[in-house]
């Protein structure tokens, strides 16, 4: 199993369009996202996001938040913990909370999930994005599940 | 990639049942719907909805709204724009808003998505459904992603 | 088509973690859940949940509810009706309602779905779970769609 971790933030004229713009910024705006919850196979490898075929179906874990209140601080975070026999992913998104806390909460939740499964953590990765809303803003952080069928080979 | 565009509206004794009845009216009541967001491959072809195998897994974009307040006008709309290298789909649903506006909003959002991607629009299709609630009403508008495995061949 | 019916309940330090703990108790905590709505093929067979490969993608119907208000009674239920040419699944979750009612509502809704389709019910199965919240509690009831790829063969 191969995954990529991405994030993005953007403004837009509507909630849908600001969300779409944030997905574009994250590099996953041209595919069909299917939301899944949130486990990783053993021996999961982390890669840079390759170029995805427009219009293909892509499984992902997605943390996202939108607001149209000027000045709001919006944060989205994914925490990934990889162990010997599996891995766990946590999504966390918050409004007007310290970005440090959003990150810390995500980390604590994924550590708890791994300890519940008796898994030792080999790798812990946290991706976070924050944004101060101007008009209509959205943040996204995502773990994208990669496979041969969705990637453009060059 | 082949798609079909459908819509339906219905009443029912509960929210779940009115939703199910609206799906039946739209022709997609007997399959498992997996919601995806909302891009089309290049050379996407529009077809009439074929007969689907009961119980198969079907990817779709779904706009839906339910209300149990007698007299509410509920509207659901999908707007599809197809360009040279990809296509975009927008879902929009509103309560007690002019059906013309719901349609117009969906069109504006999908035009914006295409312009963000530098795509010229060759085809623009908008499907819309409106319903005045009596008891418990639901509207659905959907873009259904078709493939060999989900269709009954005759 | 083969399905398994499972349920679980658990407490946890956060909503996400109590949900994850309830999934673990139900036996589906180590996979990626993709939510689908809610039809069964003809000749669907009911099996005990086999051991699932950690990190695989698993389609399911999921009824779930969480609360952090001490003393709340939370209930989740799935009702499965199997007929000659297809089957229907209903999910129902409620807070502080009689568990008998939650079950009865689910049964009535699935009976209505089958009668709308002109299907006679051969088998009717209802799975229900209830929990009195202490700290942060979650209940889950689920119909899991099984296939060769997600099962550990021994």
UniProtKB/TrEMBL annotation, chains A, B, C:
Cofactor note: Binds 1 pyruvoyl group covalently per subunit.
EC number(s) given by UniProt: 4.1.1.19
Site, Cleavage (non-hydrolytic): residue positions: 37-38
Any one Gene Ontology BP term: L-arginine catabolic process
Taxonomy, superkingdom: Archaea
Cofactor requirements of the protein: pyruvate
Molecular function per GO: arginine decarboxylase activity
Residues with Pyruvic acid (Ser) modification: 38
Keywords: Decarboxylase, Lyase, Pyruvate
Catalytic activity: L-arginine + H(+) = agmatine + CO2
Keyword hit for Plastid: no
HAMAP family in the record: PvlArgDC
Family: Belongs to the PdaD family.
PANTHER family linked to this entry: PYRUVOYL-DEPENDENT ARGININE DECARBOXYLASE
Name by which UniProt lists this protein: Pyruvoyl-dependent arginine decarboxylase
Source lineage: Archaea, Methanobacteriati, Methanobacteriota, Methanomada group, Methanobacteria
């Amino acid at each position: 199993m191969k995954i990529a971790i991405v994030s993005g933030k953007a403004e837009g004229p509507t909630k849908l369009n600001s969300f779409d713009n944030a997905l574009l910024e994250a590099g996953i705006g041209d595919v069909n996202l299917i939301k899944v919850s949130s486990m990783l196979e053993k021996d999961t490898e982390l890669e840079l996001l390759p170029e995805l075929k427009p219009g293909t179906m892509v499984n992902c874990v997605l943390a996202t938040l939108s607001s149209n209140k000027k000045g709001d601080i919006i944060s989205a975070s994914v925490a990934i913990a990889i162990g010997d026999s599996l891995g766990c992913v946590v999504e966390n998104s918050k409004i007007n909370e310290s970005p440090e806390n959003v990150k810390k909460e995500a980390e604590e939740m994924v550590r708890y999930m791994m300890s519940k499964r008796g898994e030792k953590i080999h790798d812990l990765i946290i991706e976070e994005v924050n944004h101060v809303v101007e008009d209509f803003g959205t943040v996204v952080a995502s773990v994208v599940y990669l496979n041969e069928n969705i990637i453009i080979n060059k």
